[in-house]
Amino acid sequence: MWWRKLILVVIGFGAGNIIAGGVFAFISALGMIPRMANKSKTRQYISLYEDCITIGGAFGTLYMVFPFSIPVGAFITGIIGLLAGIFIGVTAVCLAEITDVIPIMSDRANIQQGIAFLLLAVAIGKTLGSLAQWLVPIIIS
Amino acid sequence: MDIYIKCNTKYIIEEKRQIRVQDIAEVIAPPQLVNKIQQLKLLEVPVSKQKTYVISIMDIIKKIKNDFPDVEITNIGSEDILIEYHPQKIKESKIWLYVKVAFIAFIVLTGSTVAIISFHEDVNMAKVFQDIYKIFMGKKVDHPYIIQIPYSIGLILGIVLFFNHLPFIRFSQEPTPIEVEMSLYAKDVENSMVEMLNNEKEGTK
Q: How many CB pairs lie under 8 A apart between chains A and B?
């Protein structure tokens, strides 16, 4: 029996390694951390941000293995929601940006000015979409 | 007489409004000329306001040629030089810096937690591990720890190997993937800044 367990251990270990590469290489290739570091002029702290990715990844994985709970109250949960929202928001825009959606669209439509308004529209649209997704089912029911 | 000049792409100038060659360029020239060249005025900031200016290497060559017509100039640096002018000395409080760093650190921390949990949910990782457990052990369990725990260790090791450092410990002097990404991004920003300012310049002519 022990060799079966060994196979499982090896599979688990390998899967973890590859998935870490996939998910976190994706996060760093999207380039949202350079953007945030650039905006806040904190370039010299990038390795701290990478450590935070490591800790966050470890934390999230730990949750899958042992679903635990840390009761911190509604207020801090709300703040965590806000922070996660900022992260996903930056990710979504970086994803759109890395695929050159906005430059291509504005070039096709021959728009030289007012790209800021396009970006604002994207932001408002995403907020409305997110709110609609969470709130509309509640309102209907 | 040969003169070599080398400039970086970007300079931050504080307070002084007259920008001379010595502020933005390294110059190799015959000793009797070097000081005169370094004192040549390149740009006078018109208004005391934070703004970025672009100087072309052509401007510098023209200025030098103007005063010393019989020299041979070779540029070995950047062709367009960005000058970020600040009317006052840049000072930033340490507290504000730490607040910003902590804010971004928390965003990244919660974000990557959400990212990995949502990835696991998205691909139904729990089910996948149950299936693999069933394949090799012949029975179904709710929590196949024998595969989940090595998976977690592997995942953390994978991230650490990818970034090549642990909290507060760096394994090598090489820049980390995000630092590489950062310098690429900074270069992109500088290039498009140069292009934008050059367009602006041409527009005013």
A: 230
Tens of pLDDT along A76-131?
Answer: 999 999 999 999 888 888 887 777 777 787 788 887 777 778 888 888 998 998 88
| Residues of B with Cβ-Cβ distance to A58 under 8 angstroms | 152, 155-156, 159
Burial class (CB in 10 A: 0-12, 13-18, 19+), B95: exposed
Instruction: Say what the pTM is.
Output: 0.77
Task: Kindly identify which residue of chain B lies nearest to residue A67, measuring between CA atoms.
Answer: B143
Closest alpha carbon to B148 in B160, B131, B165: B131
CB A38 within 8 A of CB B193: no
- Alpha-carbon span B175 to A123, nearest angstrom: 33
Q: What is the pLDDT of residues A41-53, one digit of tens each?
A: 888 888 888 889 8
Distance between A27 CA and the closest CA of chain B, angstroms: 8
Which residues are bridge partners to B189 per DSSP? none
Rounded to an integer, what distance in angstroms lies between the CA atom of residue A48 and that of residue A123? 28
Report helix, strand or coil for B20.
strand
Every domain of chain B and the residues it spans: 2-86, 94-199
The packing angle between helices A73-98 and A2-30, to 10°, is: 70
Best CATH choice for the domain B2-86 from the list 3.40.50.2000, 3.30.1490.190, 2.60.480.10, 3.10.580.10: 2.60.480.10
Provide the CA A122 distance to its chain's centre, in angstroms: 17
Q: Which of A24, A31, A40 is opposite residue B185, by nearest beta carbon?
A: A31
Determine the average pLDDT of the residues in B129-154. Answer: 88
Q: Vertex B37, ends B36 and B39: CA angle to 5°?
A: 65
Tokens read off for A89: 């928001």
Residue B205 has pLDDT above 70, yes or no: no
